[in-house]
Amino acid sequence: MHRPRDGADRVQRGLRADIQGIRAVAIALVIFYHLWPNRLPGGYVGVDVFFVISGFLITGHIIKAAERERPVPMLVGFYARRIRRLAPAAVVVLVFVLAFTLVFLPVSSWSATGANVLAASLFSENWFLAAQSVSYLDASSTPTALQHFWSLSVEEQFYIVWPLVLLTAIALIGRRRGTWLVAAIAGIGALSFAWGVLHTRTDPDVAFFDTAARAWQFAVGALIAFLPALAGRTRVWLPWVGLAAIGIAAVVYADDTPFPGVAAVLPTLGAAAMIAGRAPADSPWSFGFLASFGPIRWLGDVSYSAYLWHWPLIILLPQVLGTDLTLRLKLVVLAATAVLAWASYRYVETPARRSAVLTRRRRRSFVAGATALLVLVAGCFGTVSVASAKMQEEDDRLLAQVTGGESCFGAAALDDASCSDPWGRIDRAAVPAPLSDKPLVWKDDCIDDITENTEKYCTYGDREASETILLWGDSHAGAWSTAFDVAGKLDHVKVIVAARNRCPSSMTAPTGTTYGDVIPTQQQAWCAARNDWVMNTLVPRADRVVLADLWANYRFEGPDSAQADGYAALIDGVRRADKSVTMVQHVPLTGQTLEDKVIGPACLAAGRSCTNDVTHALPASTSLPQRLLVADGYGDEVRWVPVESEFCHDGRCYSAIGGVSVYFDGSHLSNAYSASLGPWLAKALDRTRSLSVVE
């Protein structure tokens, strides 16, 4: 999704009009997809089109430059031009987003923005997002205003590495042996494609951002640079065939399409066909003729700036206005994107690229780029540092209220008739904190995603006590960790917490989620190994095993009844160890469905009514495993802790109770509310009921 490259001086350099037209198509797909994803579910393939364009233009430029200049001066000149071409507009957007966040958004969003600005500045946003994409916790968070820099980072990594690869190949093969150079590029592309297909099958969330899984798309563009010009009618019809391929992908593909595996071939070859056709501008039936029209040519010219600006507007405008993007606001975003793209192209991109000061001596471009980078890095670290200090101060204040026994704080307000109506009440000054107010297992780094490591756990409560509770489950067990810590200290019980993101306590690993995510086979094996270790190592240390999962979240291979099989195996194993089993009820959902989460702190900060009808918050799916276990005869063997009374009242479930945000995201308990549940939990664990009461 990117940018007009090397092309602003198109008249002097003879940049092809059809290339600008292809860019216009690509940026239009991306923006339309981001604004209306349901109308154009595969519009993200515009990114792939830009990758192919970049591979074509940069390879052609390097091959020609290598024939005229020595390698070192050529590389210095190439990188200097890249800095002048790409950095100025990107820096302006990064500074704008950082400043906007500091002025208009709550402190809870500062750290995330600072981290994204830093990753974008260091050309590593794709790897930053890849690290988050495998995290069930982070993947459910609100998107940041700079996530679109992932593709820019992929391209910039390509710009850094590809010239070195080509020059090395030329040095080894010889400049006149073009066939061998083409074979080398094709070989690199084939390896990348094979890796992309494999990685997409095994870990699609990471593969989407993986530079190595995308390199073949640049290689396809690079190979086109070696093709001779086509002749005859082929130049007219081939670009239209390519456009049709891209259009089909944009309409047929969706977010659940495995990408960038085999599916990426269609838009990639479509872009290649459009470029290879070299559509003439003098035929009214040619794509080149269409691309020569002013508005399309203009959109191609400003495509880089349009890409930079559209996504921050989509993310920031609703946050500052406290409302979702309506049709009117989407049209405002379109208009604002056009204005900002024009201004950025006219007053930032073009002057920087043509600057006599920067072009006179190449080192000045490097000095300017390094200076901008240092300023951004300093701003990022300063922002994160200040945000961390402010949020820690707020967290300490909130937790002091819990440990100090304030009777109207959080869940404690539900048991004191002297408190004002606790339902929906929120301390507005405290709203920013919950977004980072993660319970103890995150603060102590004893929860992780599904990896080969099986032995991470933590110990809370009264660590010297003779009685031990094992809290076992997915990230929702982790969210209960603070409540169990407080309850353990009150009842003089040691608490071992074994929590792992997206790995429920079932002895059968889930194959996916109920809303369509697929858990890779390798991660299933790791989850199963983790639970085997907990069963064999931690269960023998405990007197009582408590299970807490997002029960409705998982899909298991086989019929619905298979969902209970893994839990039945767990119960049997715990009973053989002569321990008891207790299950904690599913926390209420915040949206109409499990997938349709409402980010509690963001909702509260916007001043909205953040409640959910109990029929949506606790549908039958949230207790399906328990009902299946009862049907299988396990009802009297397991104890049950209902939690609805601590979240719901008069048919509504709340995201704010006793002045505290209940959740720190869209489903996990905040540290403050989890802590406030501690005294109630201590009593609830002593008065559990048989699982047979589950309706």
Tags for this model:
alpha/beta; 57% helix; three-stranded antiparallel sheet; disordered N terminus; seven-stranded mixed sheet; 695 residues
Could you explain the architecture of this structure?
By secondary structure, this protein is α/β, with parallel strands linked by helices. The protein has 29 helices and 14 strands. A seven-stranded mixed sheet has the order 1-3-2-5-7-9-14. A hairpin with a 2-residue loop joins strand 12 and strand 13 (660-661). The protein is elongated. The model is unreliable at 1-13 and 134-140 (pLDDT under 50).
Q: Over the alpha carbons, how many angstroms does the gyration radius reach?
A: 28 Å
**Span between N and C termini?**
51 Å
Question: Helix share of residues?
Answer: 55-70%
Structural class: alpha/beta
The parts where pLDDT drops under 50 for at least 5 residues are 1-13, 134-140
Largest sheet: 7 strands, mixed
The dominant shape is elongated
Percentage of β-strand residues: 5-15%
Number of strands: 14
Question: Average pLDDT, to the nearest integer?
Answer: 87
What strand order characterises the main sheet? 1-3-2-5-7-9-14
Number of H/I helices: 29
